[in-house]
């Protein structure tokens, strides 16, 4: 139960961050008035992912181990810059791991 709630919260935060980042990158949304929101979503996503990994490792080891790799691109994103392909690639890299953890959890 705890792992499911943690994974759900981490997934919602990740999806919101991806959606906002995509809208801003494609210039469908001007975030100049609330640029801090993407940063806040990033921090929230990183913290929730780390909490989900910890909960997964304690209560459902497979889900925790499957989500563990998402911490690497999340840790690298601040050092990759926002221009060029590195930022969106690092932002999208965790997606398959979220899916795998969800499948493992609800199996």
Number of spatially distinct domains? 1
Strand tally, please? 0
* Span between termini: 13 Å
Q: Order of SSEs, N→C?
A: HHHHHH
Structural class: mainly alpha
Report on the biggest sheet. Answer: none
Count of helices? 6
Strand content: under 5%
Identify the overall geometry. elongated
Residue runs with pLDDT of under 50 for 5 or more positions:
none
Helix amount: over 70%
Radius of gyration: 14 Å
The residue-averaged pLDDT reads 90
Protein described:
The radius of gyration is 14 Å and the shape is elongated. With 107 residues, the chain is mainly alpha-helical. It has one domain. The longest helix has 24 residues, at 2-25. The mean pLDDT is 90. Helix content is 78%, strand content 0%. The protein has helices spanning 2-25, 36-59, 61-67, 71-80, 86-92, 95-105. Helix 3 (61-67) runs antiparallel to helix 6 (95-105) and helix 4 runs antiparallel to helix 5.
Q: What's the arrangement of secondary structure elements?
A:
Elements: H1 2-25, H2 36-59, H3 61-67, H4 71-80, H5 86-92, H6 95-105
Can you tag this structure with a few keywords?
mainly alpha, 107 residues, 6 helices
Give a short synopsis of this structure.
This protein is an all-alpha fold and 107 residues long.
């Amino acid at each position: 139960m705890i792992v499911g709630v943690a994974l759900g919260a981490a997934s919602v935060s990740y999806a919101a961050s991806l959606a906002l980042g995509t809208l801003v990158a494609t210039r469908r949304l001007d975030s100049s008035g609330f640029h801090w929101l993407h940063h806040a979503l990033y921090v929230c996503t990183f913290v929730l992912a780390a909490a989900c990994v910890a909960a997964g490792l304690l209560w459902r080891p497979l889900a925790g181990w499957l989500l563990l790799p998402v911490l690497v691109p999340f840790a690298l994103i601040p050092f990759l810059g926002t221009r060029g392909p590195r930022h969106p690639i690092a932002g999208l890299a965790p997606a398959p791991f979220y899916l795998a953890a969800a499948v493992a959890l609800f199996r």
